[in-house]
Specification:
Layout (H helix, E strand, L loop, with lengths): L6 E6 L3 H13 L2 E6 L2 H9 L6 E4 L8 H10 L7 E6 L4 H9 L4 E4 L5 H16 L2
Length: 132
């Protein structure tokens, strides 16, 4: 990565193993990762003033799913301008359509994508949505 400034990423997933794996992968590739174990933790950090440039949300989590979390984040005007990406095992068209209707910029299915491909796709989505 050529930017001197690290891209700030909030990763929200209730699967600790996946959080750790993606945090390591993203950090080693120049991203600044703030991993959170679910919607309540994510909202607490965002309400506390943390402003990521990329939100990576799992679809299926306790309390509220990724679309509900994104809807709440947008309603409260938290992380304004952040690129929202779903990283989930839910690959049904109805889930994808629901996420797109909520304003996600990208949708990645974990089961069919290895971590290095996830990183590449996230950066591609970020760059496509931040070009001036």
């Amino acid at each position: 990565m050529t930017d001197a400034k690290k891209i700030k990423v909030m990763l929200v997933d209730d699967d600790k193993f996946l959080l750790d794996m993606y945090t390591l992968k993203f950090s080693r590739n120049g991203l600044e990762v703030n991993a959170t174990t679910g919607p309540n933790d994510a909202l607490a950090k965002l309400r506390g003033g943390y402003v990521p440039e990329i939100l990576i949300l799992d679809m299926v989590m306790p309390v509220m799913d990724g679309v509900e979390l994104l809807t709440e984040i947008r309603k409260e005007k938290l992380a304004e301008g952040a690129i929202a990406i779903m990283l989930t095992n839910q690959g049904q068209q109805s889930d994808i359509d629901r996420a797109k209707a909520a304003g996600v910029h990208g949708y990645i299915v974990k089961a069919s994508t290895i971590p290095s491909e996830v990183l590449t796709e996230i950066l591609k989505i970020y760059e496509a949505n931040t070009k001036k």
